[in-house]
Amino acid sequence: MDRFSFTKMHGLGNSYIYVNMFEETIPESLLSELAVKVSNVHTGIGADGMILICPSEVAPVKMRIFNSDGSEGKNCGNGLRCVAKYAYEHQLVNERSFFIETLSGLVKAEVFVEDGIVTKVTVDMGKPRLKRSEIPMLGEEAAQVVAEKIEVAGETYEITAVSMGNPHVIFYVNDINQAPVTTLGPIVEKDPRFPEGVNVEFVEVVNDCELHFRVWERGSGVTQACGTGACAAVVASVLNGKTARNQETVVHLAGGDLSITWTDEGNVFMTGPAETICTGVYYI
Ligand SMILES: N[C@H](CCC[C@H](N)C(=O)O)C(=O)O
Asked: Structure pTM?
């Protein structure tokens, strides 16, 4: 196998190289290094990582996501919307609402279609995991990690930690344009208190149903958007009394807006766009 077909797609500028594993075969041992290679803007295709659309025994499709550093993530909100779009448009599913398997469990997607093209997708991301051990984060077990003080590089910060199947830590800032994304982000990403690493989000609260958001992603660095991160930011904002539960909250990411609701029943719903950029053949 010296080549494979791919589709480059993005959700609010968070782009991945998607490979249809119903049609392609790539050895497991090659996946991590391939994710690094295809993500490279100079010698590869250029993206925030690689996503495999795989057969599943428990759902019509399974999503596997690899960051641009080759690490495998357990969930990806922008990726899920693009996988749902791809699956519907390529007849891997024949309903507009269907399950997708991820490494952090099953999620349910609903596609919205105009003239046969999926323009936006709602994903029921399931329930956030809030216990310290579920993030995971080291320290005394706690039901929630909310407004906890931590010291980083000699400075004291207040953090809130949420897992959407992948780990997130949220810092609130007064001005999103001044958020220390590229200075504090990489330090916290690798902080030993997060044994699996962590996605680092910065949030400015506009009002009780609107947030500004920037992200330093685990394994990919600065991205235009992070769907699971935006979900984590809404959950954290409810826990901190800054936004309301069961209310649609607009999250303004660098690449555009997501609409997110954490319902009283406990599930987090994310709605946003998914777009195809191009298709091609990658030569290994
Ligand atoms: N960097 C993340 C995976 C991608 C998540 C993000 N792109 C999204 O849309 O949720 C992690 O290692 O947990």
From this structure: 0.98
